[in-house]
Queue: 2 jobs
Job 1
Amino acid sequence: MDAATEAPNFAELRAAMVREQLMARNITDQRVLDAMGRLERERFVPEAYQAHAYADCPLPIGEGQTISQPYIVAYMLQLLALRGTERVLEIGTGSGYQTALLCLLAAEVVSIERLATLSAQAAERLAALRFTNFHLIVGDGWLGAPQFAPYQAITVGAAAPCIPTPLVAQLAEGGRLVIPVRSHTNPEEQTLVYVQRTRWRLRTKKLCGVRFVPLISERAAGTQNN
Ligand code: SAH
């Protein structure tokens, strides 16, 4: 067998991922399905894992971090209910995969990553794909990016000890925030939380158990037991 016949058929694997991991599990937002059916996830994983780019699990991306399972990415994107006009804030750029999806689904994306090496790699990948509607920031996502606020949607890709106040403050009226929150009693336990800001109040809904890498922040450290 030569290399060409051994190479995985990524287009086929991608279509199967959309069908079997997303549609079969009730991802119904057609814009999310289209974006994930189009974006080459294999570009966002290290070479050693490329053959597994469409596997139904998270994968290592270096620095002890992971690219999330495709289903959880789709589920969180669907919750944000993007229509293409929004300014979105992402915490935890990681590989840049979800950043690229947000570039397809929203008008403008601001993404914060605390690790400069991951941010630089993500910047290269996004530029290679000719996306231009994003700003990558190296820093502590706990604080958000008030210079670009307000955001119609905010998504956090690392588990926080509680909902960061600065992020809620940067939500537009009607804006949605999706964030994994760690349990105070059992650090292994995390819940995905959905927050919607209306004119008068915040509507908060606990959704399901999840497993993310921790959000690392000096600001967050003091809030562990709040
Ligand atoms: N959605 C990403 C996966 C992100 S993994 C993807 O598609 O690849 C979570 C990322 O959050 C990691 O890269 C980690 O370095 C980053 N992170 C953790 N704490 C952070 C913080 N306080 N601010 C910004 N990024 C943070």
Note: Residues 61, 65-68, 91-92, 94-95, 97-98, 112-115, 118, 140-142, 157-158, 213, 215-217 surround S-adenosyl-L-homocysteine (CB under 6 Å).
Job 2
Amino acid sequence: MGIIDKAADVIISGGLVAFPTETVYGLGGDGLNPSASERIYAAKGRPSDNPLILHISDISQLEPLVKEIPENAVRLYEKFWPGPLTLIFKKSAVVPYETSGGLDTVAVRFPSNAVAQRLISASKTPIAAPSANTSGRPSPTRASHVAYDLDGKIDIILDGGACDFGLESTIVDVSEDIPCLLRPGAITLEMLRDVLGKVNVDKAVTDMLEGGELPKAPGMKYTHYSPNADVIIVRGERQKIVQKINELIADTDIRLKVGVIATEENKYSYKGCEVLVAGSIKEPEKIASNLFKMLRKCDHHGIDRVFAEGLPENEIGLAIMNRLKKAAGYHIIDA
Ligand code: TXA
Ligand code: MG
């Protein structure tokens, strides 16, 4: 029996399998089995009011999971599935509340990664899968990241190498008349608006929420992606960012180990710190795919405080800055 069939047997019998997708690694269980969902929450240490995404490997699996398929959903999935896009629908009775975190809606995604597709097909059920990290930690983009967080708590890890995009899927709520972006990703706001025209953006995508405000994606309310180091974003004109970060480093207590998450272009500009190069400013997709690895590296290198160069918040930059802001707890300094 091949490893995929073995992993599918684990899913069918209620166990947990970590598997690669084109975004990040997922921690999968049978999405229609309430006790599998409960095991997922327990392994991640995740609050059970934070719903899971159901992963499918054929468009025919969508209809039974949802109450209706709005026209806007069809336009999006015809263009972007399989791929890094999750859609929120009103849920059908088939989806257990344990999977949907008690909500009347359900998140569905059709990943393009071949291992993910083969696992879902062989399991013959939609696979519920959050990112395969311990709750609050950066999402895993390598099998080794999954093992570091979850070894001993799950049954199998399928190693599919590094993930292509490295940031979690774009989430769009299509259950209401005007679609709403809940989490930015590789399918950018510009791409969504090209297809749909008007798309709202949930406040939690760009801004810190005030007391009493709730994000539409429950997971966006938790502190996230955080290494042990304090993360501070420095944004502004490119040259001013470098100058400001060097000033901030000079002002930092010398007992602290300082790091900078820098662009390739600026890697020789920082003094008295460890420089982690995320990629060239000309290739922001590369920066996106390296970001979580950089945040994890901060821990492995014992960094206490890390300054991250801010990026323009358009196209993939919106998703990069969204993850960085959450890692930084919205600690942003304007240069
Ligand atoms: O790329 C991805 O989406 C990865 C891979 C494994 O597919 N999965 C992932 O899952 O990022 P997770 O659980 O880490 O993030 C899912 C997000 C959470 O913020 C959750 O609150 C939100 O989706 N979500 C899930 N169901 C929802 C719903 N019915 N309504 C609103 N938000 C929902
Ligand atoms: Mg996650």
Note: DSSP finds nine helices and 15 strands in the chain.
